[in-house]
Amino acid sequence: MVTRSTLDEIRERGELRVAVAFTPPPETGHAPEFYLDPQTGAPTGVVPELGKVMAQDLGVQPIFVDLPWPEHMHALLDGQVDLLMSYTNTPQRALEVEFADRLLPSEVMIMLRADSPLNSQTALERPGARIGIWHGSSIARVAASRFPSAAIVEYPEPPAALEAGRVDACVVDAVT
After folding, report:
1. Residue 77 DSSP label
2. Is the preceding omega at residue 117 within 30 degrees of 0, hence cis?
3. What distance in Å separates the CA atoms of residue 151 and residue 149, rounded to the nearest whole number?
4. Which of 64, 24, 58, 61 is nearest to 46 (CA)?
5. For the chain, does the N or the C end have fewer beta carbons within 10 angstroms?
6. What are the backbone dihedrals phi and psi of residue 78, each rounded to the nearest 5 degrees, phi first?
């Protein structure tokens, strides 16, 4: 019996389905990875642009499937999307899918409000400190190791939680 590859399915379907996250409203994405062009509303950024090139090379149309970030891996495993281009390889994730080499190098950064009395990483390492991270992000492990006494809290929009005062800081990844 011949097993059909994902590549065969993509070519037969005529579409390359790429996961992106522009939700929840009013979210418009995560520049520079993927976001909606403010003038046209069209998907753009590194992921959509590479998706367009890959689809063109395969002779198919790119389709950008807008899903909340924590649903991306499930969508890939369930066959709703064909490709995750902005996903960090972790040992746990590698048990379920095969990763290619890094596409988008990133670094970890801490965001604070401009009026925050906290002015160092050490100031955040205390019981009672609340640190926001993206819901479903692999950055949780980094935040927990750097701030073991703080509460690490997942949000769909940690910068909004920081701005609203629900957290003292955000630990996020920044594409470099």
Report:
1. H
2. no
3. 7
4. 64
5. N
6. -85, -5
Q: What is the pLDDT of residues 113-156, one digit of tens each?
A: 888 888 778 888 889 899 999 887 878 888 998 899 999 999 88
DSSP strand pairing (34-36 vs 29-30): antiparallel
Residues of the chain predicted below pLDDT 70: 1-2, 23-29, 87-90, 94, 99, 101-105, 175-176
Positive or negative: CA dihedral 95, 61, 136, 79: negative
pTM of the model as a whole: 0.64
Taking the C-alpha atoms of residue 41 and residue 21, their distance in angstroms, rounded to an integer, is 14
pLDDT at 72: 87
Element (H, E) at 12: helix 6-13
Q: What is the largest CA-CA distance in the chain?
A: 66
Q: Tokens 């590859």 sit at which residue?
A: 5
Distance CA 91, CA 88 (A): 10
Instruction: Check: CB of residue 73 under 8 Å from CB of residue 96.
Output: yes
Amino acid at 76: L
Other CB atoms within 10 Å distance of the CB of residue 138: 15
Alpha-carbon distance of 77 to 47, in angstroms, equals 19
